[in-house]
Amino acid sequence: MRNRSALILTTVLTTGALTLTACGSRDKDNNDDNAGDKKTVVIGFDAPLTGDLSALGIGMRNSAELAVKTANKENTVDGVEFKLQPLDDQAQPSVGGQNAQKFISNDDVLGVVGPLNSSVSQSMQKPFNDASLTQISPANTGTELTQGDGWKKGDKKRQFKTFFRTATTDQVQGQFAAQYLYQKANIKKVYLIDDQKTYGAGLAASFKDTFTDLGGKIVGQDHVNPEDRDFKSVVSKVKGKGAQAVYYGGEYPAAAPLSQQLKESGAKIPLMGGDGMKSEEFPKLNKKAVGDLGTSVGKPVEELDSAKKFIEEYNKNYKENMETYGGGTYDATWAIIEAVKIVVDDNDGKLPSDSREKVLDAMSKVKFDGVTGTVSFDEYGDTTNTMMTAYQVNKQNKWESKFSEAYKPR
Amino acid sequence: MNELPQQLANGLILGAMYGLIAIGYTMVYGIVQLINFAHGEIFMVGGFGALTVFLWLPDGFSLLAAVPLMIIGGVICSVAVGTAAERFAYRPLRGAPRLAPLITAIGLSILLQQAVWKWYPDAKKDRGFPQFGGDPVHIFGADIQRGDFFLIIAAPACMLILGWYVNKTRSGRGMQATAQDPDTAKLMGINTDRIIVMAFAIGAAFAAVAAVGYGLHNGQVGFKMGFIMGLKAFTAAVLGGIGNIYGAMLGGIVLGVAEALATGYMHDVPGMEQFGGGAWKDVWAFALLILVLLLRPQGLLGERVADRA
Q1: What percent of chain A has pLDDT over 90?
Q2: Residue B2: pLDDT over 80
Q3: Whose CA is closest to A133, among A363, A342, A367, A332?
Q4: On chain A, which terminus has fewer CB atoms closer than 10 Å, C or N?
Q5: Domain boundaries A170-297+389-406, CATH class
Q6: For the region Disordered, what residue ranges are annotated (chain A) (predicted)?
Q7: Which residue does chain B place closest to A2, by CA atoms?
């Protein structure tokens, strides 16, 4: 047939082309107004500001902006005017890599806050490391990002000297979830599902190890595609396995329909997930969320005295919800501000010419009381704060904190 | 517990959705030999059109009564976009080399996606879609959600109407004639431009019906939903034999059932444990496509050229 080759060509071309379409616009930020004789220090910010995960990303951007504004208003560092440069990574590693190059090429950038996704971080770490540019992620929980692939065997090795985070690792979070389910919720049989991304798979692996160690049983395991919204076939399988709960390693856009379809299938069991699922959007998108469980890093910011002022300021300035990572992002941004302060103080109140290296050196000295607790970093760049909280969706369809503890990794 | 009936039901419902969208690909291809890659986005626009109607209705309005209105709203939106696309994007390119309208289709697809992303309120992330409450209905060993009855009824109804239209009405026969030989059809006094617009409009209307089904099934619509669904529906159209309207529905159902069975049972095949489950279902669906095209390059029903429309 005459048209066959054209049809095949069409198919191939289009599939390829459509995969590449995800390059949207990006905000350009080029007002270089130096207020008086103040030196401008730019803090880069990277997170998904559009797309599925934008609810989390926008909450992060607002929190980072608030930290910068506060520092400028209170004149935290004399002679320095901070500016935030937010870029959108669309939750895609390739876009994140391009953003990293942008930050590096701007000499005024002395630190970067972000990103949200562990998989995006993997494309940013190396360039930042080569440029000695400090990066602090409030949300990356992939254990290997700081400790290397050998962490499971106890062979921890710092990967990149420039990478820090205010979020606890998947390892800690998965273990905490397993322990909570087994000991507190008295659930012994779990079906495990993950979305095969760095974050989801890591969380599921860590959960599995701890849960089986404790004596629990994984009655089945499955993987899904994070872009899917139809999980009927997967949940039909869960139903016959006698699981008392499903643990999902992944994020809320897929977790919401998964949980709803799970309950609709007739299996009256809760879905549990990590901080990627514990979003305010989750119960909104899911009409049967009641009873679902989620873990998150740190104490609920609403319950911390140190966070009262932050929450008040945030709600005054922004209409979007701060979401899971608001407090952590504020702390991450503030950590960079503190590091700049240390550098400036050590250099007679001026910014040195090799500021990036100096800021990086100062990171190990940073220690302050932040929104989520005391902020400081250990020898791997991980936060020393391992406070974890388990939440459950209550009858009002809102997350409610159930249990917090400073978790000691096993 | 035997989960086979449940998995078959899951696959049928998903397949009906694929099939309804695939009709749009197949009709347009049958007449103008163009793969309208913006069709997935027309589907998406239909979903948002239906959602808009629902949001306009007063609170407490019965969803059962709202669904027909939502279908009308969705159909109006997608038909408007579909015919406008034909008029302003594809018609000026008629007779141009085949790659030109193809690239236009891709551009249009991006344009529509970004337009909804930019201007539809709160559409930068998934938006919730109304859903029927109540317990699922138990039939033949499978639990069927109330919302899914929409697709179970709508898909065959749409097919019957389409079959009647193509075979029995004057403009339907004109459509067949145009598909077989546009030049001769024109000489016989058929307004081929109008027929082409009709093909786009019917495809868009079916996509809107599928979009309402998608919303009721998944409980949400998003600006990105047209991409994957469009790709799957295109696959279904090719699987069934592109250009054949019954083939499109058959291809959709085969694809849907194949996905459901691969998710449900591939685990149990010895040596295939790691290739089962939700993550691999697309691989198996496409493997099936390749297999079918190797054995029957024209697709499952591709031979019945006379039925082309």
Answers
A1: 46
A2: no
A3: A363
A4: N
A5: alpha beta
A6: 133-153
A7: B33
Q: Do B263 and A233 touch (CB under 8 A)?
A: yes
| Residue-level pLDDT at A285 | 87
Biggest CA pair distance of chain A: 80
ipTM score here?
0.72
**CA pair distance B129, A119, nearest whole angstrom:** 30
pLDDT (0 to 100) of residue A85: 95
The domain ranges of chain A are 39-168+302-377, 170-297+389-406
Look up the CATH number of domain A39-168+302-377. Answer: 3.40.50.2300
pTM of structure: 0.75
Q: Does B16 touch chain A (CB under 8 A)?
A: no
Picking from A17, A54, A196, the nearest residue to B124 by CB comes out as A54
Residues 193-232 of B with CB under 8 A from A: 217-220, 222, 224-225, 227-228, 231
Q: Are A60 and A18 within 8 A, CB to CB? A: no
- Which tokens is A3 given? 């048209």
B126·A6 Cβ contact <8 A: no
Identify which of A270-274, A372-376, B33-37 has the greatest average pLDDT.
A270-274
Tell me, yes or no, if the two domains A39-168+302-377 and A170-297+389-406 fold the same way.
yes
Residue in chain A closest to B123 (alpha carbons) equals A51
A272: nearest Cα among A259, A257, A281: A259
* Chain A / chain B CB contacts < 8 angstroms: 130
Looking at per-residue confidence, does B147 or A1 come out higher? B147
Q: Where are the beta strands (DSSP E) in A11-53?
A: 39-47
Identify whether the C-beta of residue B129 lies closer than 8 Å to the C-beta of residue B220: yes
Put simply, the answer to whether B106 touches A18 (Cβ < 8 Å) is: yes
Using the beta-carbon criterion (under 8 Å), do A232 and B260 form an inter-chain contact?
yes
Exposed/middle/buried for B90, CB within 10 Å: 0-12, 13-18, 19+?
buried
Q: What is the pLDDT of residues B100-118, one digit of tens each?
A: 999 999 999 999 998 998 8
